[in-house]
Each structure stands twice: as C-alpha cells, then as structure tokens.
Amino acid sequence: MTDITGVQTLYDKFRHDEWDRLELHRIEYHVTLTTILKYLPPPPALVADIGGGPGRYSLELARRGYRVTLIDLSSVLLDMARTKAQCEGLNIVIAQANACDLSQVVPENDVFDAVLLLGPLYHLVQLSERRQAMAEALRILKKNSTSLLCTSYISQLAHFRDIATKDPARLANQSQFYRDLLQTGNYKQLSYHARPGDVRSLIQSFPELQLLELRGCEGFLGGRLNENINQLPEHEFEAWLQLVLETGADEEGLASSDHLLAISRLIISSQGEQVVQSIDES
Ligand SMILES: C[S@@+](CC[C@H](N)C(=O)[O-])C[C@H]1O[C@@H](n2cnc3c(N)ncnc32)[C@H](O)[C@@H]1O
C-alpha cells in the first residue's frame, strides 16, 4: 500500500520546489498545457484538477475561463494555490482529499467535463490504488462523449537516467532493489514509475475509456536536456516546443521522456450510456 502520509509530508515539506518545478521544466508544462487544451471542451467547462498541487494548471485554466476545482493531498500546496488565486481574483474551488476517495469533497456523480489526474498516479504504488483513483475520476466525470480524462505518469526509464546522472554506482550496489523497481515500478511505498505499455494497459482495462493520445512531455529532451533551453528567448524556445510536440508521441519520444501524458475520452452510446469497447478499438 502507498504511504499516503509519507507522500503528503513530502509535498508539504518541498512546497517551493513544487511551485518552481514547472519553471525548471518549461517544456513539460507547455507540452502538457497545449495537449490538454487541444482536447478540452471550451470554457466555461467544469474541470477537476486532482493532484494539482500549487495550481499551475488550475490557475492557467481559470484565467482562460474554465470553472476549476483543485484537489490535492497537501494542505500546504493548497494554501499556496489559494493565495495565488486570490491575488489574481480567480475563483477556484479548493479541497483536500486523497484521489482514491473523493466522496467527502465531490459526493455527487457526473459533475465535471474534464478531470486532470496529473500527479497521483506517480505515487500510488498498487495497481488497485491506481485503478481506484481512475474509477473516482470516472465517477465524477459527466457521462458525455466529450468528457475527458487526462492522466500523467513518471517514466520508469527516467528514474534510471536520474541515478545514472547523480549516483551511477547505485545500480550495481543495490541491484536487487533496482531489479524489483524494474519489475513493479515501485520506489519504496512512495512512488510509482510506469512504462508506456503499463499506461496503455491501465487505460484499456477501463472499457468505457478510449485512449486518444499518449505522449512524452519532454520527448527526446528528457533526462534534463530540456533544462538547456529554459533561458532561450520566447521564439527560440517555441521552436523546440514545436519539435517536441511533433515528435513526443513517437516511440522514441515516449522512450526518452521523463513524464508521460495520456488523454482519454469517455465512450458513450447514442442513448447516453457508457459503452463497452473491445480492446482493439483503442
Ligand atoms: C509532482 S506533483 C504534480 C503537480 C501538478 N499536477 C503538475 O502536474 O505539475 C504531484 C501532486 O500530486 C499530489 N498527490 C500525490 N498523491 C496524491 C493522492 N493520492 N491524492 C491527491 N493528491 C495526490 C501531491 O500532493 C502533489 O501535489
């Protein structure tokens, strides 16, 4: 089982890192935002940002006229988001909850046009917990064919690239630990690292979902290469962003990216019911 208190403590403690994270990873932020906006129904659609932390995406969507509910484990990150929303006069509903059980904060079904689950699936170490978080997201989504579920993951190879950079001796010295990580994707009881195939299997295991797009957020600029272009002037940065957007859904883009983003939609029959799809259709 996931050490939920441990995850919460981690984010409470490193709150400023989490706000700064997407400044350091500008490509991840812009690829994620651009891809989500490509599929989102137009504002003022209702969006739940579950695991939205300090609210980078919530704030931007609210600026664009979406009606946003931000939910996270960390009360410290939520306070930060509340302050930033107040400073800009943005009206965002903010609530603290575990993505696996939203019953206290969203008791009703069929509320949102889109759900972003960009964070909790990095941390839920058991498949049953990841499925529970997905099921909660589906419960609160309106049962329309335009309803969208956006999920993100940390890539398993990104973890290995990270230790190759910071402490390469660890792979041999803790070989059993890393064998297990390769098998399960789990780092202790705190985080989960996925491969593209794991993401596809998870989404395909929900017959009411159709995977529209799976892409790497940093694409071939994974492994911190993307940090080299952060300081470029806007038009030069934009050229790299376009290249990552063009290539990030290719096999190579997926394999070398640090984060994976999956966009799925609900499959609805003409009678408005969720339909069971065969696995080959997605
Ligand atoms: C790496 S941050 C991602 C923040 C933001 N969504 C983004 O993409 O930049 C992960 C966030 O997920 C939250 N989180 C992790 N597990 C969660 C869970 N089970 N339920 C709700 N939030 C969770 C953390 O508190 C943290 O704010």
Fold and architecture overview:
InterPro entries: Methyltransf_25, SAM-dependent_MTases_sf. Keywords: Methyltransferase, S-adenosyl-L-methionine, Transferase. This protein has twelve helices and nine strands. It is α/β, with parallel strands linked by helices. The protein has a single domain, classed as Rossmann fold (3-Layer(aba) Sandwich). Strands 1, 2, 3, 4, 5, 6, 7, 8 and 9 form a nine-stranded mixed beta sheet that branches. Helix 5 links the parallel strand 2 and strand 3. Helix 3 crosses helix 11. The longest helix has 14 residues. The chain starts with a helix and ends in a 16-residue tail after the last strand. The C terminus is likely disordered. S-adenosylmethionine binds next to helix 1 and helix 2.
Considering the protein shown, what is the CATH homologous superfamily?
Answer: Vaccinia Virus protein VP39
CATH architecture: 3-Layer(aba) Sandwich
Class computed from helices, strands and strand pairing: alpha/beta
Mean pLDDT: 93
Total beta strand runs: 9
Rg, rounded, reads 18 Å
Q: Provide the β-strand percentage band.
A: 15-25%
Q: Would you spell out the secondary-structure blueprint of this structure?
A:
Layout: H1 4-13, H2 15-24, H3 26-39, E1 46-50, H4 56-63, E2 67-72, H5 75-88, E3 93-96, E4 114-117, H6 127-140, E5 148-155, H7 156-166, H8 170-173, H9 175-184, E6 186-187, E7 191-194, H10 196-204, E8 209-216, H11 234-247, H12 251-256, E9 259-266
Bound molecules: S-adenosylmethionine.
S-adenosylmethionine (SAM) binds next to helix 1 and helix 2.
